[in-house]
Amino acid sequence: MVLFFTNVVTAYAGYPELEKFLENNFAASIVLSDSDVFSVGISDFNPNEILNTENENWGTEGSLDNRKTYAIAALPYRMELSDEDAVDQHSVMLRLSGMISDETLRFNQDEPADDFHQTVIDFYAAYRIKHRFDQHWSLEPGLGHHLMHYENHVDYHSPTGRMLQPYLDDLLFNTSAWASVLEPQVRVKYESRQSWGHWYISSAWHYFYGFGWGQANQGDVGNPEGWYGANSITGVYDFSQLGPSVQSVYASLRRVDVGGDIRHPLGTPVYYETTFGWLMTPPFDTDWIDNVGVGLSLNYGSAFKGGSIVLFFNQE
């Protein structure tokens, strides 16, 4: 695993490095759990093998290892508080997500590797107000809050690891931390509804800043800070209806810009992602599920570049 390896093996040498390591983990979880900027797959592949190309921006062995190392799950739910035809529509967005990684550490190449397991749990809530200027244009500012918990566990197998364990445990390894992060955001959207479905373009920007505390690094957990923005175009083609259930083809292309603590985990200031697949609304009335589906996602230019089979849940 390349993404955090440099920080992991050097963090014990200085508290600022360890603080940055924790900030990067919290920031990575915030962005990677947002399906508007990153698609999580259940099976990964290198598009170069399918396209018969050698473009490293489409995928490498290292980026596929990154995708396979991290398991990310998110359960979003949006509560609409206003009528559909209201000029100002208020809503609450809730999301429970988790990011888990399993890696190996080597303090000495001639010794066995040590197992390194990390978990970040994030409960996110946001209040948003969408103002409709007309049937096409809307502006949606909002304010969100993340309550996050990080913990890791190391199984020491190497002699060097066991020797360093009294100094590393509680400080860097076998420890935990919390973060409370505020996230103001704004989104501009143009939408056009057609007889065959709808399409839209949007530009959404997020800034986050938080405070950390806990056992790790003697309580000096730092202040996760960063920003990200996504400019995207999306189309949904409704091709079939069975009773109340509508089946659709979904396609999206977006450019994502990032800065602050998230830039290091993603390995780039900008990347691109395209997603396409099949969606189906539930054949029964429910306020919890808008749609489900399956598709394909291609990430170009980030530390997670490559392709994935993705599952859709409440996809816009």
- The radius of gyration is 21 Å
Strand content: over 45%
Mean pLDDT: 90
CA distance, first residue to last residue: 33 Å
For this structure, what is the CATH class? Mainly Beta
- The H-and-E topology, N to C, reads as HHEHHEEEEHEEEEHEEE
Strand order of the largest sheet: 1-12-11-10-9-8-7-6-5-4-3-2
Structural class: alpha+beta
**Main pleated-sheet profile:** 12 strands, antiparallel
Give the CATH topology.
Answer: Lipocalin
Helix content: 10-25%
Instruction: Just name the CATH architecture.
Output: Beta Barrel
Q: Helical stretch count?
A: 6
Spans of at least 5 consecutive residues whose pLDDT stays below 50 are 1-14
Tell me, briefly, the overall form.
Answer: globular
Number of strands: 12
List keywords for this structure.
twelve-stranded antiparallel sheet; Lipocalin; alpha+beta; 316 residues; disordered N terminus; 54% strand; 12 strands
